[in-house]
Design a protein that fits this description.
single chain, DUF5908 family protein, DUF5908
Length: 53
């Protein structure tokens, strides 16, 4: 049975004082950005399917 997500709440805390610049964090940031963009694409697809109904 498929699960339908009706609402998605995302909460983040941003610490502006933390500034770490290493190659490991830039790789992690790239992975995070890729995951976020894929999530946004999935949400857009869900909304488009919802409109088609």
């Amino acid at each position: 049975m498929p699960i339908e997500i009706k609402e998605l709440h995302i909460k983040i805390n941003v610490d502006e004082k933390a500034t770490v610049t290493t190659t490991a964090t830039s790789i992690d940031e790239a992975k995070i950005m890729r995951a976020v963009s894929e999530s946004v694409e999935q949400v857009v697809n869900i909304e488009q399917r919802k409109k088609e109904r």
